[in-house]
Amino acid sequence: MTAAPAALAAMTFGLSDDHAALYRDAVAFGAEHGTKSSAALSGRIDRPLVAELAERGLLPLLFPRRVGGTAPEDSVSAMTLCVLREAIAQGSTQAETALAMQGLGGYAIAQAGTEEAVRRWVPPIARGQAIAAFALTEPEAGSDAGAVQLRAERSADGAYRLTGAKTWISNAPDADVYVVFARTTPEVGAKGVTAFVVAGDARGLTGEPIDLLDDHAIGRLQFDGVAVAAAEVLGEVDHGFGVAMRTLDLFRPSVGAFAVGMAQAALDAALDHARSRRAFGKPIREFQAMSHLLAEMATRTEAARLMVRAAARAYDEDAPGITGRSAMAKVFATEAAQFVVDGAVQVHGAAGLERGHLLERLYRTVRAPRIYEGTSEIQREVIARELYR
Ligand code: COS
To answer: What is the pLDDT of residues 324-344, one digit of tens each?
Structure first.
């Protein structure tokens, strides 16, 4: 389903002409790709899709020219990221997630990598030739990200050896490069964490896929004394937690944008269904129970969109309070999308539950964003702290 011109005009309201044009192109890309059958991928990376995102010129927009991308700005534009994620998600959540995970893994390297690491990894990531991943979470450190235990021990030659485990890492175990957060100083919490770039084929690195509710490429990693050179440290030793948090400040509103895209797709489907489905002699949209539900779904979708764009704009303008706004946009939009997708299932009745139906897929896909990149509870914690800062 492609959005009508009037609907697209409403969705691009307030965007610059360039961003509005990008939005339309990205909606078309999503619509062309749809969602592939899960059997074809079974939770593994769809490399041809990543390559197509690059060929179409969408993926390179997430990386500045100085590091091999095509973004005109010197750093990533949060608005560009949010426009792409919201627009692509309307047609293809798989394409959206493939794009976003490249951005998440690649951004930390582009932002904090040595010249050598940037040159080696960022251009191929931006061109869709190397798959990137962001490895923060561990079996015993999820919300409490400062508690990571994967050890990075320094050897006499200045290199590090990484030992431990990561889990629920998108694009693992098949990524070509991982941004890995490891402990360089014990018992000091967030202050003793360092970020490293680790090649996917490094000796001692193994992994396995995890089968989730949604068909998402995700897995576990095991590090068995993986050697990493000093040039592969991202930023400063013991300051990796800041690298992670700054990355999340940019990506959290964009998770909200992904949620808005899913909410829009669910809302559009519900509006169509409520217009054509008849019960008791009239279209079901004429029942107040349905029309008020649709009105609430549309209102929350619009509110979420506006919050996401406000956070993105604040980020791009380096306005004060980015961390709080970013968390607000993520929690509000992902919770709103859950409500909207659930409402759309209700409007459809049993049809929306049939395996393969758009809403059955969205219902499975919409759940994870309330957990990853910081749960809703963590976002509220971040917001509350910012209120007193
Ligand atoms: N930008 C830059 N630096 C930041 C930051 C941000 N947004 N947030 C925190 N920091 C810095 C702090 O300034 C502090 O450094 P100093 O001690 O030098 O001032 C350091 O990081 C530790 O911060 P804090 O004390 O706030 O850390 P906490 O352990 O209390 O935890 C939360 C902070 C809960 C916000 C963090 O653990 C978090 O975001 N958890 C969720 C993790 C997550 O999103 N996981 C998903 C993985 S990706 S799918």
So the answer is: 999 999 999 999 999 999 999
Which among 107, 91, 155 has a CA at the least distance from the CA of 365?
91
Alpha-carbon distance of 355 to 255, in angstroms, equals 25
pLDDT digit string, tens, across residues 184-208:
999 999 999 999 999 999 999 999 9
> What size, in residues, is the chain?
389
CA of 44 relative to ligand 1 center, distance in Å: 30
CATH topology for the 5-126 domain: Butyryl-Coa Dehydrogenase, subunit A; domain 1 (1.10.540)
CA distance 105 to 160: 21
Which residue is catalytic, options 232, 373, 377, 386? 373
Which fold is adopted by the domain 132-238? Butyryl-CoA Dehydrogenase, subunit A; domain 2 (2.40.110)
**Nearest protein Cα to ligand 1, atom 7:** 245
- For ligand 1, say whether the CB of 146 is within 6 Å of any of its atoms: yes
Atom 46 (ligand 1) nearest CA: 373
- pLDDT tens, residue by residue, 220-242: 999 999 999 999 999 999 999 99
Protein residue with least CA distance to atom 28, ligand 1? 146
